[in-house]
Amino acid sequence: MAVPSELPDCGLDLRKVKLVITCLYFVLFVPALLLNITAARISWNLRTKSSFVVYLKSLVASDLLMTLTIPLKAGSELPGAPQWLRAFACQYSSVVFYLCMYMSMIQMGLISLDRFFKIVKPGGKRFGHSALFGRVVVVVIWVLYLSVNTIPTMVLTNEKPENNTAELCMAMKNDLGKAYHRAVIIQCNVIFLVVLVIIGVCYTCIAKKVIESYRNSGSTNVEGNRKIKVRVFIVLVVFLVCFAPYHIIRFPYVQRQVENKINCHWASLKVAKSLTLWLSSTNVCMDPFIYILLCKAFREKLYELRIFRRCFPTRTLENTEDTSVSK
């Protein structure tokens, strides 16, 4: 069922909304590409000595791949975009976009757990901190997500719609595809909630442990305590600001989407979903700053770049070092 650009009595011009969101994606793409190419270059040169670095490199790969899907996603949202481009986005590029987004979340959770066991529950050289263990975990998670979520979604989004409908992606799914889509949304919300709890608990415990160490040693390093709290605060805030609004909106939107209820409520949810999805995608610009906060080796490699060296003197870099929280 086609839908006009402006729904009756809704006060929403969906064409204008799509145009604004498309512009936001293109504005995001340039800094995201520069930041993630830089992050990929730096991470490529990091020695893979621990599971932490493996997770970091996997996170960088997820963010870079997600960044590369942004132009296709933005182009498919343009008013008047050809149906073949919208269909390609529904079946392939948007599915990869979501794959990378949730893999980024999972990698953030793994990094949080790694830091937790390294700092709060230290036990010498454990197998769980080895690069081999990290590689196995990363490969298993990528394979599982691809086989359970991404590939079935692509396969089940293969119907040919009769016309350029408002919900083309749903029109490309049969009844099994729609049911599977609902299951995927539940799975994704569970991933978000689990990772949120992991990040919150792990970094809160890390901050508490390190601050207690300062106090037990008689240290009055107020600046060090402040930096630890800021690091915990930033990781949690970035995760919540980027991902929480989208996951609040997504489930009720999908209910309307699957049921094909094209009305004012659907239009409002669609606008909210589109805006919060763009907000989620800004995570590709936020993650590189988290790398700097959490990875000492990453900071050192970044400092070797001439541009960074001009912006930050040596003393500034040294003042950011806090090996109790970062690796």
TrEMBL record:
GO terms for cellular component: plasma membrane. It is found in: Cell membrane. Keywords: Cell membrane, Disulfide bond, G-protein coupled receptor, Membrane, Receptor, Transducer, Transmembrane, Transmembrane helix. The chain crosses the membrane at residues 19-40, 52-72, 92-111, 132-151, 184-207, 228-249, 275-294. Pfam families: 7tm_1. InterPro entries: GPCR_Rhodpsn, GPCR_Rhodpsn_7TM, P2Y13_rcpt. The keyword Secreted does not apply. One of its GO terms (molecular function) is G protein-coupled receptor activity. It is a multi-pass membrane protein. The keyword Signal does not apply. SUPFAM superfamilies: Family A G protein-coupled receptor-like. Residues 32-291 form the G-protein coupled receptors family 1 profile domain. Signal peptide: none annotated. This is G-protein coupled receptors family 1 profile domain-containing protein.
